[in-house]
Structures are given as C-alpha cells and as structure tokens.
Amino acid sequence: MTKFGERMLKSWLQRPLIDKNDINDRHEAIDSLMGKLNGLQIERVKSVLKNCPDLELILSRIHYGRSNRKEVYLFLKKISEILNVFNTMRDELISLDVLNSALLFDLFNYIKELSKSDLVDFNDYLSMINSQHAMDAKSNDHIIRYFNEKFYDYLEIEIENEEISRIEQLFDQELQEIKKITKDRDTQYITVSNEPYLIQIRKSNVKHVPPDWV
C-alpha cells in the first residue's frame, strides 16, 4: 500500500461514512473491483504503484516551495505512469462491466479527462528533464545539467557559474582582510533579513572597526 493510501484508509476508518447512499456506492465499487478484475489488471496496478513515492507529500512540498529537483522529477514521472495505466485500463473495465459502479465510472472518466490535458503537460515537463542527472543528487551536474540541453544553453549557464565562483572568491579574500582589520579570526559573513554578506563584530572588537564601516 502506498503512503498516501495508508493515510486515506486511516481517515476512512477514523471517519466512517454515515450516509446510506455513500456506503452503498462504496460497497458497489469494491464488489465490482473484487469480482471482475483479472490477475493481469491487478498486477498492472500493483506494478505502477510499487515503490511509489509519497506523491501527496511531494505535492505539498512543491506547493510550499520546499521540494528538491529529484522529488519534482519523481512526481512527474510517477503521475505520468499512473495516468497512462489507468487511462488504458478504462476501456477494458467497461468491457468487463466493472464501471457499472457509478463511483468507479466517475473516477475513471475523471482520469480520462486528466489524461487529455494534464498528461500532455506532465510528459512535456518530463521531456525537459535529464533523468540521469535528476536522480544523482550528489553530483554538481544534478544542478547545472538537470534540464536537457535542447531546452537550455548550458555553455551560458557554465559561464555564469564561473562568474559566481569568481565573485565568491573575492568575497572570501575580502573576509580575510576584514579579519585582519578587526583582529578577530572568527569573523564570518552572516545573513540578516535575506541580506547576505553582512559582518557581525564582537563588542570587544568594535574599537578596531574603521569609522566609515558603520
């Protein structure tokens, strides 16, 4: 069972249905699935959901801007696979009368509509990502070669990265000079209110700070 499936089942058990029609709809859907799905179809569903990342959690992280590159790639890849499998199964389930259940019929129609629009977007996004570097989070290429070259000018990106490195070296050199002037070898850059490269001086060393620094 997937992580998000576990949470849904727990929610169902903690907050059981109380409306008779809703209960009957769910029972009808379960009976249809249990009685008419064949082994091959069940294996296809199990296969696509096996080792499935926690899509619900990743989606939440994406929404709040806390996801990493690997998570975004895995989310797009798995959603694309799921939509493909379930959309393909729809016609098979209709032929088996599985979708006589109103609940399942609505669900698979919803998936079909998603496949017409969102699946195209997912596949477009996936085609932009270099899967090899997306999965290798330890390599620097995970950052600078995350996207396929046909979408971005990587030479220009590398030039910009070199310029950033050069500027960071200048900041480091400046920090060494600051340490000499303030006579404080532990001085480091700090960030305050998103303002980077600020210097915090110990009270005991304030006397060494040049007047034009304040």
TrEMBL record:
<dbReference type="GO" id="GO:0140664">
    <property type="term" value="F:ATP-dependent DNA damage sensor activity"/>
</dbReference>
<dbReference type="Pfam" id="PF05192">
    <property type="entry name" value="MutS_III"/>
</dbReference>
<keyword id="KW-0227">DNA damage</keyword>
<dbReference type="GO" id="GO:0030983">
    <property type="term" value="F:mismatched DNA binding"/>
</dbReference>
<keyword id="KW-0234">DNA repair</keyword>
<dbReference type="GO" id="GO:0005634">
    <property type="term" value="C:nucleus"/>
</dbReference>
<dbReference type="GO" id="GO:0006298">
    <property type="term" value="P:mismatch repair"/>
</dbReference>
<dbReference type="InterPro" id="IPR036187">
    <property type="entry name" value="DNA_mismatch_repair_MutS_sf"/>
</dbReference>
<dbReference type="InterPro" id="IPR007696">
    <property type="entry name" value="DNA_mismatch_repair_MutS_core"/>
</dbReference>
<dbReference type="InterPro" id="IPR045076">
    <property type="entry name" value="MutS"/>
</dbReference>
<dbReference type="GO" id="GO:0005524">
    <property type="term" value="F:ATP binding"/>
</dbReference>
<feature type="domain" description="DNA mismatch repair protein MutS core">
    <location>
        <begin position="2"/>
        <end position="181"/>
    </location>
</feature>
<dbReference type="GO" id="GO:0006312">
    <property type="term" value="P:mitotic recombination"/>
</dbReference>
<protein>
    <submittedName>
        <fullName>DNA mismatch repair protein MSH3</fullName>
    </submittedName>
</protein>
